[in-house]
Amino acid sequence: MTAEDLKALIRTVPDFPKPGILFRDITTLIADGAGFAATIELLATQATAARAEAIAGMEARGFIFGAAVAARLALPFLPIRKPGKLPVPVLSIDYALEYGTDTLEVDPTAIGSAQRVVIIDDLIATGGTATAAVKLLRSAGALVDHALFVIDLPDLGGANRLRALDVAVSALMDFPGH
User: Fold this and answer.
1) Catalytic residue chosen out of the listed positions 59, 61, 72, 116
2) What would the pLDDT profile of 26-58 be if each residue is shown by its tens digit?
């Protein structure tokens, strides 16, 4: 399947979560077995080209794609969690949202020193979560210089925020607007 074939599997839901937003819903993509498999294969190819030694994914949809790519490549998967979900001492980072703040956590013992970690998530919009994940992983000693996404919403500038941190960004597809 081509990237255009996969793009056709993404459902657009207007006015969710609020009026004026076009929500790009990946559940229709992952519900299509061939489409999901092709997505994982394309991401795995890019992760291999980035010389990934581990894959990190942010809760929750980053777990779907990141864990599948890690399994496909027989690499460790590093879950970037919401607060209070890990039963061990964690590293954490607070980051700004449109209205307020949030926190991400990681188990630092799961990350090798200078281990090349590729971040994978379903979508890059404003880049707040991905930027926080890069900073968090780097604080744990990881080398993070690639981030892969299924969808980019380029008008929201998130990919450029990551590039400003010297992270190469790639997405299988993009959608204009937000």
Assistant:
1) 61
2) 999 999 999 999 999 999 999 999 999 999 999
| Helix (H) or strand (E) run with residue 30 in it | helix 27-30
In this structure, what token pair is assigned to residue 35? 């489409």
The CATH number that applies at residue 48 is: 3.40.50.2020
- Rounded to whole angstroms, how far apart are CA atoms 76 and 21? 35
Give me 97's structure tokens. Answer: 């949202």
Nearest-angstrom CA–CA distance, 91 and 99: 23
Structural domain harbouring 104: 3-174
State the catalytic residue, choosing from 11, 51, 81, 98.
98
The pTM of the whole model exceeds 0.85: yes
Q: Could you give the angle at the alpha carbon of 156 between the alpha carbons of 153 and 161, nearest 5°?
A: 100
Quote the strand ranges of 98-156, DSSP E. 100-106, 116-124, 143-152
61 assigned to active site: yes
Confidence band for 23, pLDDT divided at 50, 70 and 90? very high
For residue 41, indicate whether it is catalytic.
no
Domain count along the chain: 1
